[in-house]
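Re: Re: token formats

Sure, here are both.
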Amino acid sequence: MQLIIGSDNEESKLLVGPTVFAIGENEDVFIVMQHPYVDVINSSSANMGNRLVTNYYYFEKAYILRARDNSKGGVDFSKLVNGPMSDDEFYKVSRVKNFPKFSVIFRDLQ
């Protein structure tokens, strides 16, 4: 699973690649947990997330809405993505920004 932004009338952009396995949100942010993609040929873990590594991301909704509203002028998608972050980095930011809990977790991908 991955996180993409876009609509039917515009070009979609990949924000977080495979394998996204948990998400959460509140009125200010979306939060995402991801195992980074493993690109290994002839491996049992090929085309899957590396479950030994967990990356964290967050996206501020206000910036996403501004970017969507101003998309005709071009969107700097790099400003949408805050991450990847380690456990420690994410939880430090989480305390300051009051992140929500992860409300959807895909256990089979975790």
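Second one below.
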Amino acid sequence: MKRNLTVGDSAPPIQNIDIWDEEVKVPASDKWTYLSFHRFAACPFCNLRINQLRHQYEEFKKRNIRIIAVWPSDKDLLLHNADGAKMPFPMLSNANKQIYKDYGVTESSLMGAARLFLHPFLILKAIKNKVEKITVDADPNLMPASFLIDQEGRIKMAYYGKHFGDHPEIETIFSFLK
């Protein structure tokens, strides 16, 4: 039975190498961690979020929060979709979805597509900014999720998306810093 993580739970530890061969560990004893789980490398909604995180990176950094993006896609496809540009934060390839399972990010639902129709401006924005060729290399119905983890490894925010482009607002994430 799937169990969602909640505020106050211990964050499952992560020790991995990102797509640029940098070591990544969660928790980090000196920083907060924002984990952002995505659907697949070419997902237009996920790429909107990554661009938003990239543009807000300095605001996260000012608040001593490191961003880690987790993808069920393989490293080569992630690097291809990054188009040679290194993000200012780690991106983890987790093709076997073990990190997804550890964090309870396993919901796959066609309802995610149906709920998305309640957000037409998000759909238009995603279409406008989508990559040229969309290759679906993971479960296309996987829902996104986000977690804010403190330096002791406690979850301070757990957010499971309700549709394919559902992520918490940046200010909402910052409001959990205490």
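The chain has one domain: 30-174. The longest helix spans residues 44-55.
- S.
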